[in-house]
Amino acid sequence: MDTFLPAFIMGFREGLEAFLIVSIILQYLRKSKNESLRKYVYYGTISGIVASLGIGGILYILSKAIDKMDQVAKLWESGASFVALALVTTFIYWMIQHGRNMVSTVESSVSQNLSAFGIAGVAFIMVAREGVEVAIFTFAGQYAIVALFAGITAALVLAVLINHSLVKVNLRILFNITLAYLILQAGFLLGYGIHEGLSALGSMNLLSSESPLFIKAFDLSETIFYHKEGLLGLPLYVLFGWYSKPEILQFIMQYLYTGSLFYIWHREIKKEASKLNLLA
């Protein structure tokens, strides 16, 4: 249950963006009188979904095989976390830079690729980017598949309702909330990767148990802040990636990373506000 909410929000956020991107492409083709290319959007979308499922399947099989080897499994989880983190960080930075102008960004890409192959390629890349990211993030974070697909299904329903103008949603607020949550989860993924990596190196006797790297920043595991069962610790763990007994390295890197991304986001918001003030 403690991984349901992160998995649901991850699936919802990435799914909604992918579905809305497809909707933007279709609407642009309709406005520009290029509706004959619509079928290639669907070809590209289906190919992107298949590619994402294929990569997800490979990762699933690999993770199940590695899970049988305890020491290797910890290294796998640590390494997968860092790979996922690199991809998610790239995505987060792109969203901070361009997310506010998603419609114009997508339409610009489409306008530069008005051909059967080009349109299919744009749809494929944008859908596959979201899908591959979800696949890697999911298996690195050991997220529940049911929760993930529940989030994607909810995103599909909302995207259809929005596309048919049946509901009105402030997408900027929605994306800002989910982007903030994604930053927190990415920070947790970094902390998780460091913790599992240190644990693996210790169990393989590559790091001494006396190493300063194992020194805890604090230990609240006997209090209500215990991240697995504590009255406050468990919800904090689910919502914000809280850990009740982190190593000093884990604690510093996790919150330094999170704080840095929030600072970059805040700086971009101020920069945009300054431009708007100048134009006014």
TrEMBL record:
One GO molecular-function entry? ferrous iron transmembrane transporter activity
Top-level taxon in the UniProt lineage? Bacteria
Q: Which InterPro entries match?
A: FTR1/Fip1/EfeU
Question: What is the predominant subcellular site recorded for this chain?
Answer: membrane
For this record, the Gene Ontology CC terms, alphabetical, are: high-affinity iron permease complex
How does the protein's chain sit in the membrane according to the entry? Multi-pass membrane protein
Bilayer-crossing residues are 6-29, 41-63, 75-96, 108-128, 134-161, 173-194, 248-265
Q: Which UniProt keywords apply?
A: Membrane, Transmembrane, Transmembrane helix
* Localization in the cell: Membrane
A single Pfam family, by name?
FTR1
What family is reported?
Answer: Belongs to the oxidase-dependent Fe transporter (OFeT) (TC 9.A.10.1) family.
Protein name listed in UniProt: Iron permease ftr1/fip1/efeu
Native organism: Trichococcus pasteurii
